[in-house]
Amino acid sequence: MKVKYLGTAAAERVPAIFCKCEVCEFAREHKGKEWRTQLQTVLDEGELLIDFPGDSFLHQWQHDIDFNDIEHLLLTHWHGDHLYAEDLALRISGYGQDLDKVLHVYGSPFTKTFYDRAFELEGRFDESRLVYHTIRAYNPIEISRYKVYPIPAQHGNFQEDCLIYAIVDRETGKSLFYTHDTGMPLEKDLQYLATQGIVFDFVSLDCTGQGFEQSGPVHMSLKENVHLIEKMRQLGLVHDETIYVASHFSHNGGLNHEAMQALSEADGILTSYDGMEVEF
């Protein structure tokens, strides 16, 4: 399995679109890995795309990725930095031409209301171009070559409107735990994953709070990441070679890339950056 982070920031990006804090000014001066766009991730060279933020057009240009070739889009939730459905609506006939693939979109019932709104603004849906598949927590589904286990995120309305995912490649047996956006997953949800017999090879960790003690109920910090990893170890959900990567950073976390990298690597966690690729 190959994971590529097209973007690694929270909603405001880094530098934030309207901010002159120390982190943002440092990013403007140094650029490179300090610049972060909204979180979006692609698996296995386009086999599965996770989320579609407003920065998707920029990602297409930055990373030479052709969204026309992607047939499966998995949505974590309905916030605009993870679903900018107005751009998805531009895939309908009359806007996009000569498309030979249908894009299958997967998300919660509540997320679908935000998806539908964009097409209602256009005055039509076009299921010859895009089809939305409603998924629910604890109901595994097959998407392309993957088996996907939706888990409630501790985010949004806390009513299973936001989801995190366990993703297992049925061809290779490799597995990914994708935890964006969420506070600390509930013990019962981790135990549920353990009953499925999954042992993760890769864990992508929400780290919006960076070096804070905790990041509130809807995100995690590095210390909370470490606590989550320990819980997963106790439940047998990870192994000695599991790769851990922190992502979804906010300028309000207070750390630039170099400082975050030094802090996270002391705990055996990699710090992501836009364009980072990991194959396992």
TrEMBL record:
Protein name per Swiss-Prot or TrEMBL: Metallo-beta-lactamase domain-containing protein
Lineage, opening ranks: Bacteria, Bacillati, Bacillota, Bacilli, Lactobacillales
Organism this protein belongs to: Enterococcus alcedinis
Location of the Metallo-beta-lactamase domain: 62-233
Pfam family for this entry, one: Lactamase_B_2
